[in-house]
Each structure stands twice: as structure tokens, then as C-alpha cells.
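Data availability (excerpt). The following record was deposited with the supplementary files.
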Amino acid sequence: MLLIKASISKAWKLRRLKEFKLYTTHQPNLTDIVSTNIAISNYAKQSKLGVARQLFDQMPQRTAVSWNTMISSYSKHGKCSEALFLVHSMHRSRTKFTESTFSSVLSVCARLRRLQDGKLIHCLVLKSGSESFELVGSALLYSYASCFEIGEARRVFDLLVGRNEVLWSLMLVGYVNCKLMDDAMSLFAKMPRRDVIAWTTLISGLSKNGGSCGKAMEFFRLMMRSGEATPNEFTFDCVVRDCGRLRILSQGRAVHGLLMRCGLEYNPSIGGALVEFYCECEALDDAWRLCKGDVNPSLNALNSLIDGLMLMGRIEDAELVFKGMTEMNPVSYNLMIKGYAANCRIDDSKRLFEKMPCKTIFSSNTMISVYSRNGEIDKAFELFEETKNEKNPVTWNSMMSGYIHSGQPEEALKLYITMRRLSILQTRSTFSALFHACSCLGSLQQGQLLHGHLIKTPFESNVYVGTSLIDMYSKCGSIMEAQTSFESISSPNVPAWTALINGHAHHGLGSEAISLFNRMIEQGLAPNGATFVGVLCACSRTGMVDEGMKIFHSMERCYGVTPILEHYTCMVDLLGRSGRIREAEEFIKKMPLEADGVIWIALLSACWFWMDMEVGERVAEKMFSFDPQPISSFVILSNINAGLGRWREKMMLRKILRGFKVKKDPGCSWIELKNKVHVFSIEDRTHPYCDMIYATLEHLTANVNSIVHFDHVSIPITQSV
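Predicted structure:
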């Protein structure tokens, strides 16, 4: 029995010894793995990803921590594709995904907006039962929201929100990013706890959502009354900018007072916003005082001040601020260059551009626009040639706009063809400029081709591009396509409505234009001066005098739009076209503004139409005060005299016109053939096929003038039975 016990004891000791040896031989490997993982993490923190990856690849054995360390390192340094590749490799190696793996890879899918990969990871999450972990659930919702799959994000939220309070804030961010502000406000109202981040997220979302700045201010006031959270610098930044956009100086000053109380007045992130607010409210002295009061004003604040001063035409003050800056960046130079150009100081723009210590692509783009608008298209093209290889879309857009401004829309279209061939990114400004080029050419076919290209981009429903498209179709004679383009805009603004109203007005569709105007008002949009010009033109062209008078008198009373000379011209044209010549003359006399030559010529044209020589002669005398050689007035008076049979007076006026040695610009017509517009005028010999055209015309004329006699022969018709 003792022998048996001894043998059992010996066997047990041998087995324990083997286990100990086995343990001691594996233990160094685990230590090596841990130390390598730490080394990988340290190298990654030093941005030495290449060295970290080399260590990772050399590891004979890897744990989940090894994979997670390398994946998260790639993710943090923005190398998302490499991180995703490693995740696939980890899955193939049959290493079990951990909570950290799932959160890292879902964050990568969110950044890359890889919806399908995110859904595959979601399947693995469900299989592993990890969805209830706080980090995983949060990353899952964030991934769907970033890919704009807000429905899936909401499903995750509804499933996990009871176990994960962080999801409330993430769901709110998702709604805001998808611009679903009604859903965001509804969720916000149900949140169990609303911290400063939640309040700021909602206020910021409303601020960026076009016409919701007023709503953002309401929520800020609610935040202050509720006492749930204290606004931070990010909250104040949004609110101050909203005050600037809404031009509410008094409320902005009140917010400024709160900033002073919180000690944030000279915070670098808010200083620029405050200066910008005062500039937008045209309180430039307050903006300047704010910059002077700051011991070390931020560069953003000073740049905002320069921009505001330049916009108000205070160039000398802007120069003073610019020269007093201890630090300048390319934005500072660009603002001065653009400001000089806008105020017709082109030489100063050029001088400053040459002085720039470090020219950027942005300054070159600015100068391309400056040269183009100054008629120096060759210099603009030279600068474009120097910078085009950077493939910056703004560079190409600036050059295309320059060609259009210089009356060379064909060159703009050619440049677009090259742009596509070189695979340069097209932006909304690209299409806006090109549709304007088609408007200048009157080329409907080119516009339709470009519209086909637009449909393949994300800009089809963009209001900025859509407005240009409406304008192009209207000017090229296709009002139905203009209407269709308007309907494709996701959220039409006032310029979009105005473009469509103008289109109907130019096509003589006055009733439709007024109907559109009323629809715009019903949707809560406030018309601007340009809208009223369009609708008054529509009334003028269709003789809707009473409706036009009613709209004109409602401008200031109902919409706060003060009429300018353009509106008064429309009214004179409206009265004149309808034969109310004397009423139009009285209307001009009672105007609060001094009438210019355009208004008087509108009345003179009406006198010609209605053959009113008495008023016509009085108007012609007025025209002499604007122009010592009023050629248009002499021509119209000559035509009135001819219409009334006063040939002697007509001949006298024609004699005066001949003394001016003026030459009338010939009228022209055009056709579009194979995407090319061919223009023709009287005795035009510039067309490359003019000889062939004239030969064909002579042949057609000879055929029209020839007399062909046909013998009338009666042919009996027999009907067989």
C-alpha cells in the first residue's frame, strides 16, 4: 500500500514538474508579447507608424491586444484604409474581436462612410453579444449616423438606450448632421439630462441650417432661463455669429455683456466671431475698439475687421489695421487684394500680390479673378498656366468665370472639357459658371448636355446651382425646363424663386409670375428688391397695372423693402405701356429720388408707342440734362414725327443724328447646329462658310421669284365595279 502511495506521489510530482517546466517555457513569450505591444503603442504615439508596423509584422505570436493597438494607432493617425485592412486580416487569423476592436473598426467605417463594412461588423457584434457594451453601442450608432443611415441609427438607439445614456447625445448629433432639425428638437425635449454639449449641439445645428438662426437664439434664451447648463465658448461662438447673420445689434451687445461677465471676451475662438458680428451689423467702430482693447488680438479677429472695413469702402482704415499687424497670413493678404480690386484699385492689388512673401494657391486664384475683371484676361491665363497643375477646382472655376466675364463663354466651355479629361473635381461653382456661359451663348443644347453631367453629381438639388440652371433655361427659351429645374431644388430660397419669376416675366407670362410670387409669400419667404423687379416687370409686360401698383405700394409697408430707381423705372414702364402717359409723368415728378436717364427713356419709348408728341418733346428736353448727345432721344423723336407725318421735323432730326456720326449696331440672328452657335447679321462675311451660304440663299431666292405654270389636265376617273 505504501509502495502504491509512493508511486502515485512520484507520478504527481513528475506531472507537476512537467507543468512547471511547460509554464516557465511559455511565460517568456507572453512577456515578449506584452513588451512588444507597449513598444508598438509608444512608437505610434510618436507618429512612427512604419516602425510600429514593422514590429507588429515581426511578432511570431499576436494577441487581440496586439491587433487592437495597431488598428487604433492607424485610426488615430487618419490611416483608415490600413486600419480596415488589418481588421480583415485579424478576422482571417481567427483572433476573437474584443470591445476595443469593435469600437475602433466602427469608428473607421464612420470616417470612411463605409456603410457595407459597418453592417458586416454589426453582424459580428450581434454574434459576439457585445452590443450592450457602452463603447460598442456608441460606435455602432455613430457609424450609422455618419453614413447618413439615420433609420438604422435610430433602431440601435431604441434598442440600447436603456443601458447606455451616451446614446442620447450621439443620436442628437446624428439628427443634426443629417439636418433633421425637427427630429433633433423632439429628441432634445425627451433627453433625461441635457448638458452643455447637448445644448450647444442643437444650437449649432440650428445656426448652420439656413433660416433657423432665429430658432437657435430661442434655444439659447431657453438655456439661460432653465439653468440646466452654463454656456461655454463654443455655445457663445454660435450665438454671436447668429446675431451677426440676423443683424440684431442689441441682442448681440447683450451676449457680448455675458461674455465679459464670463471672462471670455478676448478668448481667441470668440474674439473673431465678435468682430465679425459687429462688422456684419455695420458697427465697425465697435469692432475696431474691440481689437484695440485686446492686448494680443487674434489673427482671425483682425482679418474679420479688415474684411468688414473693405466691404464698407473704408480702405484707408483697412490699410492702417493691415500695416499694424505683427503677424499676417495669406488670408490677410487675400482680403486686402480683393478689397483693393473691389474698390477699383487694381494697381494696389497687383503690388500687394507681388510683395506676398509666400504666395498660395488661394492668392493666385484671387489674382486670376482680379486680372479677369480688369480686362487683363491674358495675364489671368498666364497665372492659370502656372497653377493649373495643382488641380485646385477653384483655380479652374476662376479662369472659367474670367472667360465668361471677358465675353468668351466658348473658351469657358472648352476649359471644362479639359477639366473633365484631367479628372479635376467639379464643384457647384463649376456648374453655376457653365450654365451662365450657356446663357450668354443662348445655347440650349449645351445647357442640356451640362445638365446631364450635373445629374451625376451631388449638386442637382443644390439651390445655388439650381438657380443658375433656372436662369439658363429661361434665357434659352425653355420655361418648362426652368420650372422642372426649380422643382428639383431641395429647399428653394429667395434667389431661386426670383429667377423663376424673372423667367416667366421675360416670357410674357405675367399671371404665372404673380402666382409664383404669391406662393413664395405663402411659404414664409420674404421677397427682396430683385424679386420685386421681376414681378413688376411681369406686370408691365402683360398690362396688369392695378396689380403692379398694389405690389409696388406693398413693398415698404408689408416687406420693408425701400424702392430704388430700378423699381420706379418698372412702374413708369408699366404706366407708359398701358397708355397712361400723363400719369407716368406725374409719377416721376412725385418720386422721392431724382430720376435718371433710364427712367426718362422708358417714358419716351411709351410716347413713341402711343404717338404722344407733347409729352415726348418735354421728356426729350429732360434727356439733354443727362447727355449732351442723347442719340436714343433723337431716334425716338424722329420715329414719332414720322408716325405723325411730320416729315420736315423728322428730316431735321435725322440731319442732327448724321452730325453725331453714330452707327447703329446691326441686329443679328443665330442658329445652334451640332452644339455650336452660328451668328448672322446683314452683309456679314465673317462666317467660314459664308460663300456657300450666300450661294444657297441666291438659289433659294431664284426659286421663290420664278413663276412656274402648270397645265390643268382633267383626268377621268373610272370606277370598276
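Summary of structural features: The chain is about 70% helix and 0% strand.
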